[in-house]
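User: Run a structure prediction on this.
Assistant: Running it now.
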Amino acid sequence: MIIKEKELLKTHTTFQTGGPASFFIEARTENDIKEAAIFFKQKNLPVFVLGLGSNLLVSDNGFKGIIINILSEGIKSEVYNEDVLVIAEAGERWDSLVGYSVWEGLYGLENMSAIPGTVGGGVAGNIGAYGAEVKDRLLWVDALDMRSGNVKRFSNADCVFTYRNSFFKTEEGKNNIIIRAGFLLSKNGKANIAYKDLSDFFAGKTSVPNLKEIRDAIISIRQSKLPDWTKVGTAGSFFKNPTVSEKEFSDLKTRFPEIPGRIEDSSLSEKRVKLSLGWILDKICGLKGMSVGRVGTYGNQALVIVNEGGTANEVLSFAGSIEKIVKEKTGITIEREVELVGF
């Protein structure tokens, strides 16, 4: 286990913002993670668990506490009834896991190709894309309770997954560090290409696309819409797609006839309609490609905020102005997907 003091966090986040952490721990093994928990108990300081630093906005003042950077790697698989259980360490890159599953001919994760971050972060945030989410395939999670030092196995139900959220994002859940996760994948799955971008991409194709073709298509679509996070300061989608009641959607349709929406879960007694915030920001608010100083929305996708050397406060101020414009134009209150650290 490596411990650093006053480590600048801007070098560890895709948004490229963040002042120093009081302590910065690099944990590469399960034993390192357990040692980090002991260090936490000794110092009695706030803790934040970091992966690749995606989906975060870290304060210019840094973090007055302990950052635990999970760098553990490893993927293995085993037969599980008629399916295959793929087990990945928390610090493994998410896209490496997806690439592994596609290479092995396993269905279930391919629609989440090219999402930055780690397996642990992906589980905690219930990441998703193109009609698939982590919760759809996760079987269990092993996590360490920093207070007791005990490792517990959480079932899918224990994780309490919701849209871009889970138990591990709650105040209680943040006391747990994800060590590894098990995903139940299928050798005999079906291509999930119902999502509009994918169905458009494969329109006219006579045969059902295979796993590699789906992965390649998603990578291509994402590259056309999103900036290269290794070159530009960004955390991808800054806001969540909002949901409204059917009546609210009907009212919006009256005002904005072309606004797209889809039923979030038809099994619910009170149906909710999920809206495309990217469409709203572009077509209703005219915010695609808008910038203020060194911060702006991406030219190909208004849902993405890009940082060209600005501070965290500049990013936060810009995001606040977007929230205000959306509220004024549509009456919708939008939520941030990006997590704020150190504010």
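The radius of gyration is 20 Å.
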